[in-house]
Specification:
Length: 288
């Protein structure tokens, strides 16, 4: 069950990242984040009310609040790093956030077997290579590296926090709702500040019309991200966090393959190698 839900997480996150990347070509990244998460809030709110999730309220929801604060900061740091440095360097480094939940699992006493340790090492190497790291070319700004590492830590912290935010399915819906409300609050405040400083909240060409036309895509990105957080939480609760985290972080492979099929992008040798290693690592983790 752990492997199944963790792989579902990577699939959902990979598609959400692909969709979000396409949307940020048409509108500001911060607007994409706030709008997609706002749609998720409305859907999750209805689910919480329908399932009686409010009865699950308790101190553990502070983990969801923390995840909601950290998430937007990590995402904005990642987008800024992508603007400053080569995507082929920034994207693979961002996936190193897997180290956070893995270290948490080890600190809690989890001890994977030798075959699983090998699977973790192979899968993480595959995740990094799947992003197509640029091994030579123009030097990368130090700020881009620091922002990317901050984003990676944030992504990993969200995974660790959301796994602690609930112990039941109805509680999970409530935790995800609280996380998303916090996401929208933090992201909305950041958007307000950026507009006050002269940035645009709407696309230059088309304005609100483009945003309204993109609502289905925004809904998909927001809901896929929510579903991924949910499946990861289930995976982490039903098996070793060290394994769940690595399998869930295979999402760069999904994003790369989606770009290959949908946008007809060419798969670089290093990316193909990374995808292959990720698959081998997955098999080792599942069989170990």
């Amino acid at each position: 069950m752990t492997a199944l839900f963790a792989l579902a997480t990577s699939f959902l996150w990979g598609l959400a990242d692909f969709g979000g990347g396409l949307l940020t070509r048409r509108m500001p990244a911060l607007t994409v984040v706030v709008a997609s998460q706002a749609i998720a809030v409305m859907v999750l709110g209805a689910i919480v009310i329908a399932t009686g999730g409010l009865d699950e309220a308790g101190p553990q929801l502070w983990y969801a609040v923390a995840a909601g604060v950290v998430g937007p900061v990590a995402m904005l740091s990642f987008y800024k790093a992508l603007a400053l440095g080569p995507m082929g360097v920034v994207s693979p480094l961002g996936s190193l956030g897997v180290a956070v939940p893995v270290c948490v699992g080890l600190a809690l006493g989890e001890r994977p077997g030798l075959l699983q340790f090998a699977g973790i090492a192979v899968a993480v190497a595959g995740i990094v290579l799947a992003g197509g790291p640029q091994l030579r070319g123009a030097p990368v700004q130090r700020q881009a590296i620091l922002l990317t590492l901050l984003a990676a830590f944030g992504f990993g912290a969200v995974m660790a926090l959301i796994a602690e935010a609930s112990t039941t399915i109805t509680g999970l819906f409530l935790a995800l709702f609280v996380q998303r409300v916090t996401n929208v609050t933090v992201g909305g405040a950041a958007l307000f500040v950026s507009v006050k400083r002269g940035a645009r909240a709407l696309p230059e060409d088309g304005g609100m019309r483009v945003v309204l036309a993109s609502l289905p895509a925004l809904a998909f990105v927001g809901l896929a991200d929510v579903a991924a957080n949910g499946t990861y939480s289930i995976a982490a609760q039903h098996g070793p966090v060290t394994i769940a985290a690595v399998l869930a972080n295979l999402y760069p492979v999904v994003t790369v393959l989606a770009a290959l099929m949908m946008l007809k992008e060419r798969l670089r040798v290093v990316q193909a190698t990374g995808a292959g290693l990720a698959l081998v690592g997955t098999v080792l983790l599942a069989t170990g």
